[in-house]
Every structure is written in C-alpha cells, then in structure tokens.
C-alpha cells in the first residue's frame, strides 16, 4: 500500500482532522505519520553529512571524516587567511574563496559545524587579551559562531580551543559560550584531551566542546585514552636539508638537562635573548612539545642529532643527523604551535636541528600526500603556521567516531509509517 493511500485512510478515521487542515493533535496518528514522512524527506535530502568548517584552516575535520570513511560533503568553508585557503583547496581538491566569518550569513543546511576559533588571546603564549563579546579581539570571534549556529541550527557543533580558556582569567567566556549554546537549543559536553593519548607523539592539550541539538541528543561520551605506540623519532624525515640545523656557535651553548625523567626536555641552550621555550632541546625517544604557529625567530621545536652516518637505527635511543637523527623512542613530541621550537643539542659528535614543516604536519596527523600538496602552493613559513593553527586529526577521528558512528549503531530501529498500520 502506498504512503498517500495510508495517509488518506487514517485521515478519514481521525476524529481531530477536517481533511483540509493539518491535524494539530499530537496524539493523532496522522500527526505522527506526517512527522515521520517529513523526517524521511529530510534524511533523503541529507544523505551525506553536510559539514561547515568555520576558521577552517587546512581542514582537519574534513581529513578526519575522510579517514573514518564517512560520506560527507563540505557545505562551506570559511577562512580569511589566503595562504590557508590555498593549502585547503590544494589538499581537498576544492575551490573555495577567502571568506570573513563576521560577514558570513548564508542560509544552508548543515549537519556538523566545526570551529576552532582563534586562540591567541586565550593562549599562555599570547598577550592574554581575552575574548569578551564585543571586545574586537581575535578570540572574541567565537561569538560569531554562536550567531551562525542560531541561524542554521546544525545537529552537531564541535569547538576546539586552548586549555587556558578554562583558566580563572578566561573561564567566564567559556561559560558564556556554554550558556548561549544552551539557550539556543543545545546540550554541551566538554573535556580536555591530549594528542599524545590518541596516537600522536605531541604533548598538545586542548579543550573540546561537543554541542548536540536538544531534539536529537542521546548523550555523548568522550573517547578513552589510547596507548601511545609512536615516539617523536617515528615522525622524522630520513633526509633533512642542512638549513634546518643550528650553527656550531649556537650548539656550543647546549647544556644537558637536570630535569626529571618524566619530561621530554633533555637539554637547554644558554641564549640570554631567547625565550625559555626557544632554548629547549627535546628527546626524540619521547614526544614533541605542542606545535605552534612558529612565526620565525628560532621558534621551531629542536631535537638532538648524532653527527654520524650509522643509519636511522644505528644508535639505540639516538637519531643521527640527516638519516640518523636521535630521538627518545619512549617519548612524545611537544605541542606543535605556530612558532618554531628547538630540539636538544650536544657539542661532541652531535648536532641540533629544528623540526621541518613536513614533520610538523605529521605531528598534526596529516599524511605526507597532504603536505606535498600544500607545499606546492605555500612557503615553509606558512606551512609551519598552518600546522600550528590546525587541530590534531587523530583526536578529531576519535571524537567523531563517538559522535557520529557510535550513536548510529546504538540508535533504535528507524520508525516508518508502516508501524502504525
């Protein structure tokens, strides 16, 4: 029996319906059937997961969905940095223009909205200008997301930002975000996750907030930490250009660290004019510091290398220069940032070098193929910055698995109109 015939028969038996007007009684069988039909039509139109990436960068969310094998399409991509847009289009085979989030006002259907609004004014490495609504700081752009969410009402909203957003100085903005999202119809879940707990040897803590529209919310559980099997040395290139190595004069300033074995720092450079994080040398057998935007000036993370040709595995626990770099295989990288960090230095038979842009991309969970596409359209300086501004793909994979795949498997059998006849 066709659905329109079923609707006709039930309409004729409904004491509330008058044939010409829609029945408004929620206990009416027809009313329930109409809702199912509408939902099925919506499902047909939205067979692919439609994604809006705000402050999209190089597209960590799209990469995570691709890895998970989820059928998705990019409903739109909003990014004002022209260099990031170049990399995104090259990596994802798209042709999006530069777009300003403050003027974005499209009326489109979206299932998942991903945003990593600017963190500079919340970050400990920034000026701590904050992100109060209407303040005009970069971090206050988080409120543009709320405006857009209120307009298009996506099913899910995922927000990533620095852990310091939860500090006493900034937590009022975080709470304000949660309250506003709740007011416009969302249930919020948040937790601080570290990249080194999800397969990437980088010490990168970020707060992730998952907001689910109240009419579809079934709860959300953040992914459990996983055993870290990779170390910083596993992320390194076999051949590295000489330009990434520090000069002999700087290497002479190296002093081994007296810090605890629990740290990933194995030494420091005695450089009075350098900031503390610029002086650190990291153990390749452990993990990287957080990758940042590395805006020049020796900000890249640094590692210690053997000045030998013995091969990558020639010395246990050490990574020779070029093919034989020395890293602590039991350690993790520090967090990749937009600034350049330094790795450990040794003066006798050892050298110190910076992590390369490709290594930083790897530490953010991107494939070498992704990097090569971006490298064709951008300089190293921009590639470093893009890695530091991105979100670790592996962490998003774990989150989206719980948000999109686990919920699907736990869903009850889909109801159809035939359940009422």
Describe the structure.
This protein is an alpha/beta fold and 421 residues long. Helices cover 29% and strands 19% of the residues. The protein has twelve helices and 14 strands. A hairpin with an 8-residue loop joins strand 8 and strand 9. Helix 3 packs across helix 12, helix 4 crosses helix 10 and helix 9 runs parallel beside helix 11. The C terminus is likely disordered.
Strand order of the largest sheet: 2-1-3-4-7-5
Give the ordered list of helices and strands.
HHEHEHEHEHEEEHEEHEEEEEHHHH
Number of helices: 12
Taking the sheet with the most strands, its summary is: 6 strands, mixed
The portion of residues forming beta strands comes to: 15-25%
In whole angstroms, how far apart are the ends?
Answer: 10 Å
Helical coverage, percent range: 25-40%
Low-confidence stretches: 9-13, 18-24, 308-330, 339-348, 409-421
Global outline = globular
Radius of gyration: 25 Å
Return the average pLDDT rounded to an integer: 77
Q: Which class do the helix and strand fractions yield?
A: alpha/beta
